[in-house]
Design goal:
The complex is a heterodimer of chains A (409) and B (358). Chain A is an all-alpha fold. Chain A is built from 15 helices and one strand. Chain A has a domain of 280 residues: Formate dehydrogenase/DMSO reductase domain (Formate dehydrogenase/DMSO reductase fold, Up-down Bundle), CATH 1.20.1630.10. Chain B has one domain: 2-Layer Sandwich (Alpha-Beta Plaits). In chain B, the strands form four sheets. Chain B has a four-stranded mixed sheet with strand order 8-1-10-9. Chain B has a two-stranded antiparallel sheet with strand order 2-3. In chain B, strand 6 and strand 7 form a beta hairpin. Chain B is globular, with a radius of gyration of 26 Å. The chains are: A mainly alpha (409), B alpha+beta (358). Chains A and B meet through helix 1, strand 1, helix 3, helix 5 and helix 8 of A and strand 2, strand 3, helix 5, helix 6 and strand 6 of B.
Chain lengths: 409, 358
C-alpha cells in the first residue's frame, strides 16, 4: 500500500499546488518517514472534509456572455482548508443598501457634473433635472450609509479623523461636501418655485429678500457639487477594492473604471430620461461613452484574474452581471438608435439605470461569494508563495523547491 | 507615550520609504514610534504560540472569555447560542467578535513506509492469550484484538477508530493550535478604520475603542486573517486587545497566564522571536520536518505580526491564510485609478457639452 497511497496522501496534504511527490530514493534511514514537506500527513477519516467535494456548478443557462464557458476553463483547484471554513470574514455590509449606495453615488456624481455644465450652456431643463437627480441621490446615499452603521447615532464619528489610508474616511469627506452642495443646489431650485418659497417664508421670513441671489447661489452650489461629483462616483470602487476580499482586491486597478463607466451610464441615462430630447444631447453622449468604458473595464475584471475572476461568472453574481450586461447593452442600443425620441430616451435611460444597479449588485455578490469560499483566499496566495519560494531557491542556487519551503518565514 | 494614535504608519513621512514614499508595508522596526509615540515607549510585546506543545485544553479560550466578559456563541458566531460544530473537538469554530482565542483541532493520519522497525501487533507476543487465531482471516483478529485490548496503550495508539484499521503502517496525529489576533505591523483593520476607533497602543498592539466605534464594519473584510468581526446585536466590532487593561497594570494576558503547557508565550517581541528561532532549530534537529514559523518573517505581506506561531503543517490546514497581505499596500495605485476615473467622468461630460447644441 505504501507508495501509491502515500503519493496520494502527499497530494492531499500539500494541496498538490505545485508540490510534486518527492520520489523515495531508498536512501532514507530505516524507521523514519520520508522527508517530504507535508510528511504525508492528511486529514484522517473517510471523506477528507478539508477538501469539500464540489458540485459541478451550472450557470443560468447561457445568456449574455455565457460566462460559464470561461469559468469552466479554470481548472478545479486542489487546496487545503480548515474544514472548508472561510478564512477571511465576509463583509457585514447590508445588501441591497450598500450596492444601492454605490449606484446612487455614481448616478448623483455624474449628474452633478452634467448639472453644473448645463447651467452655463443654456440648458435650463437639463440643469434642473440633473441637480434634482444629484440632490436626491446624494441625500439617499447619506441615509443608506448611516443606516448601514452598527451604531447609526455615531455617524458623526466618521468626521472625527481624516485618514488617507481609509477609503471610507476619504469617502466621508467626499460625501459630506457633495451632499451639502447638491442638496443646496436642489433646495434653491425648490425655493425658486413660488409656492415653496411662500411656505418656507413662514418659517424663515428673510428668505424672500434673498430671492435675488438664488440663481448665483444655485450656480455656485452646482459648481461645488461638480467638483466632488467625479470622486463621489469612483471612491466606492476603492472602498471595496481595499479589502482582503479576493475578487474585489485583485481587480483593484480596474474597478474604479467599472464604477466610473457605470456611473456615467446611470447619470447620463437618468438625466436623459427626464429631459426633453432637445436638451438631452450631452446626457446621451455621456451615457454611451460610459457604457463603452464600463463594458471594457468589467471584461478585464471578469477575465483577467484567473481563479479570482470565477465568482463573477457563478451563482447569483453571474446572473446579476449577465442581466446587467443585457440591460446596459440594450439600453445603449436604444439610446443610440431611438435616443432622439422621447420614448426612446426614457426607455434607454431606464435600461441603463437598471443595468448600473445590477452591475453594482453583481460585483457586490461576487465579492461576498469569494469571501465565503476558502479556495479564493488560499489558492492565489499559495501560488504567490510558491512562485516566491521557487525564485528564492533559484537565487540560492538549488533547484529543489522543498529546500526553500522549510526556510523560516 | 501618553498620546494615543489612530494614525497608520503610512501617514508618517519621517522614515518614508525612498522608493514608494510611504510606509504602507514592509518591515517596521519601531511600530509605536511610527504611530507617533515618544521614544520612551515600552517595548513591542507579542505572543509566540508554539503549537507543538499545545494540548488543545482550551484554557486560553476560557480565560479570555472570563477576563474580557465575552458572550457565549456557537461555532458560527451566533450569539447566545450553544451548539456543537459536528466536525471535530473544535466547537468554537473560528475567531470572531465573541471568541478572541480559538483552538483549532485537526486529526491527521499518514501512511508510513513499510521498511520500519516492526512493533509486534498487539496479541502477537501473547502466545498463551487463549484467543484462537482465526485461520481464515488473521487480520480480523488483530483488529478485534486492537479494539478489545483497551488496556494496551500500544494498541490504542495504533487503532484508527475512523477506518477500523490498525497496524504499524499508519500513524495518527492531532494538530492543535490556539489562534488569536495577529496584531500586525501593518494592520489592515487599523489602516481602514474611518473613525480612529482602532488604534496602536504603546505596546505595539492594535485595540478597538468601544466608545468610538460606530460599527461601519470596514475593518471586518479588511483583515486578511478574518479576525475582527461585528457583534450583530451590539453593532460594534470586537477583537483581541492582548489584554490591554492587564498590560497597563504589568500583568500578562489572560490566555498566556492560563496556558498550562507554555504553548502561548507572552513577552517582548524580539525576545520571543529569538526563542522561536531556537525552538524551530531544536524541532528540526529532532527530525520534525514539518515545523515552520508563521508570521515571524518581517518581510511578509503585513510586515510581520505581533502574534506569531510555530506550526506543524501548512497554514491553511489550520485555517490561516498562507501568504496574507495588507491591502493598503496597493492603495496608492487604487487612489490613482480612482482619480483617473473621476477625471474621465469630468472630461467625458465636458466634451459632451462641446459642439453643437443638441
Amino acid at each position: 500500500m505504501a507508495t501509491g497511497a502515500f503519493a496520494e496522501r502527499v497530494l492531499l496534504a500539500t494541496g498538490g499546488g505545485g508540490v510534486s511527490e518527492q520520489p523515495t530514493t531508498g536512501d532514507e534511514p530505516a524507521g523514519e518517514a520520508p522527508l517530504t514537506p507535508g510528511a504525508g500527513w492528511h486529514r484522517a477519516g473517510g471523506q477528507d472534509l478539508t477538501r469539500p467535494r464540489r458540485k459541478r456548478r451550472r450557470g443560468g443557462g447561457g445568456g449574455w456572455g455565457s460566462g460559464n464557458r470561461e469559468a469552466a476553463m479554470v481548472p478545479e483547484a486542489e487546496f487545503s482548508s480548515y474544514y472548508g471554513r472561510q478564512i477571511i470574514k465576509s463583509p457585514t455590509w447590508k445588501n441591497p443598501e450598500v450596492p444601492l449606495y454605490f449606484f446612487l453615488g455614481g448616478a448623483a456624481g455624474t449628474s452633478s457634473v452634467i448639472g453644473a455644465l448645463a447651467e452655463f450652456t443654456g440648458r435650463p431643463t437639463l440643469a434642473r433635472n440633473a441637480e434634482y437627480t444629484a440632490g436626491i441621490g446624494a441625500l439617499a446615499s447619506v441615509v443608506l450609509l448611516i443606516d448601514d452603521l452598527g451604531r447609526p447615532e455615531r455617524f458623526l464619528h466618521m468626521l472625527r479623523v481624516f485618514k488617507p489610508t481609509s477609503p471610507l474616511s476619504v469617502g466621508s469627506y467626499i460625501l459630506s461636501p457633495f451632499s451639502a452642495f447638491t442638496s443646496a443646489a436642489a433646495g434653491i431650485r425648490l425655493l425658486e418655485l413660488q409656492p415653496v418659497l411662500e411656505l418656507a417664508a413662514k418659517v424663515l421670513p428673510f428668505l424672500p429678500r434673498l430671492a435675488g441671489a438664488f440663481p448665483a447661489l444655485r450656480k455656485a452650489s452646482a459648481v461645488g457639487a461638480a467638483a466632488f461629483g467625479g470622486p463621489m462616483a469612483t471612491y466606492t470602487a476603492v472602498l471595496i477594492a481595499n479589502t482582503a476580499v479576493p475578487s474585489w482586491h485583485a481587480p483593484h486597478d480596474e474597478l474604479p473604471f467599472v464604477f466610473a463607466g457605470s456611473a456615467m451610464a446611470a447619470g447620463g441615462g437618468i438625466t436623459m430620461a427626464l429631459t426633453p430630447v432637445e436638451e438631452a444631447g450631452p446626457s446621451r453622449k455621456v451615457a454611451l461613452t460610459g457604457v463603452a468604458l464600463e463594458l471594457a473595464a468589467i471584461h478585464r475584471v471578469e477575465h483577467g484574474h484567473g481563479i479570482v475572476s470565477e465568482p463573477y461568472h457563478l451563482g447569483k453574481a453571474g446572473k446579476l452581471l449577465r442581466a446587467a450586461k443585457a440591460c446596459t447593452v440594450s439600453g445603449a442600443g436604444v439610446t443610440a438608435l431611438l435616443g432622439r425620441t422621447r420614448v426612446g430616451g426614457v426607455l434607454g435611460g431606464a435600461l441603463l439605470a437598471a443595468g448600473s444597479v445590477m452591475t453594482r449588485m453583481g460585483i457586490f455578490e461576487a465579492g461576498m461569494a469569494s469571501a465565503k469560499d476558502p479556495k479564493y483566499t488560499v489558492v492565489p496566495q499559495r501560488e504567490r508563495l510558491e512562485a516566491r519560494q521557487a525564485e528564492a531557491a533559484a537565487r540560492a542556487g538549488t533547484d529543489d523547491p522543498h529546500e526553500a519551503r522549510s526556510v523560516v518565514r | 507615550m501618553t498620546t494615543v494614535s489612530s494614525a497608520s504608519p503610512g501617514l508618517s513621512k519621517d522614515h518614508a520609504d525612498p522608493v514608494t514614499g510611504n510606509r504602507l508595508y514592509g518591515p517596521l522596526p519601531d511600530v509605536q514610534g511610527e504611530a507617533g509615540y515618544e521614544t520612551d515607549h515600552p517595548a513591542r510585546v507579542g505572543f509566540f504560540t508554539d503549537t507543538s506543545v499545545c494540548i488543545g485544553c482550551k484554557a486560553c479560550e476560557v480565560a479570555c472569555k472570563e477576563w474580557n466578559t465575552l458572550p457565549m456563541d456557537d461555532s458560527h458566531g451566533t450569539r447566545d447560542a450553544m451548539g456543537l460544530s459536528g466536525m471535530s473537538y473544535d466547537n468554537t469554530g473560528q475567531l470572531g467578535a465573541n471568541s478572541w482565542r480559538h483552538v483549532a483541532f485537526i486529526e491527521q493520519s499518514r501512511a508510513v513506509d513499510l521498511p520500519m522497525p516492526v512493533f509486534g501487533r498487539p496479541g502477537d507476543d501473547r502466545q498463551d492469550s487463549g484467543q484462537p487465531v482465526n485461520p481464515i482471516s488473521p487480520q480480523a483478529d488483530s483488529t478485534l484484538n486492537a479494539q478489545t485490548s483497551v488496556l494496551n496503550a500500544q494498541s490504542l495508539s495504533e487503532f484508527d477508530p475512523q477506518t477500523g484499521q490498525s497496524g504499524s503502517d499508519k500513524q495518527i496525529r492531532w494538530l492543535m493550535s490556539s489562534d488569536v489576533c495577529k496584531h500586525c505591523t501593518h494592520a489592515g483593520c487599523l489602516d481602514v478604520c474611518p473613525t480612529g476607533a482602532l488604534f496602536r497602543t504603546e505596546f505595539g498592539t492594535v485595540v478597538v475603542q468601544g466608545d468610538i466605534c460606530n460599527g461601519c464594519g470596514y475593518c471586518v473584510p479588511a483583515c486578511p486573517y478574518g479576525v475582527i468581526d461585528k457583534r450583530e446585536d451590539d453593532g460594534r466590532v470586537f477583537k483581541c486587545t492582548m489584554c490591554y487593561d492587564r498590560l497597563t497594570d504589568g500583568l500578562q494576558p489572560a490566555c498566556a497566564t492560563a496556558c498550562p503547557t507554555q504553548s502561548i508565550q507572552f513577552g517582548d517581541l524580539d525576545e520571543l522571536q529569538a526563542r522561536a528561532d531556537a525552538r524551530l532549530a531544536t524541532l528540526k534537529g529532532q527530525g520534525v520536518e514539518t515545523a515552520r514559523l508563521y508570521g515571524r518573517d518581517e518581510a511578509d505581506g503585513v510586515g510581520g505580526v505581533g502574534a506569531f506561531f510555530l506550526l506543524l503543517d501548512e497554514p491553511e490546514v489550520y485555517g490561516l491564510p498562507p501568504d496574507p497581505i495588507v491591502t493598503t499596500r496597493d492603495l496608492p495605485s487604487m487612489w490613482k485609478a480612482a482619480a483617473t476615473g473621476a477625471a474621465v467622468i469630468v472630461g467625458v461630460v465636458a466634451s459632451a457639452f462641446v459642439g453643437r447644441k443638441r
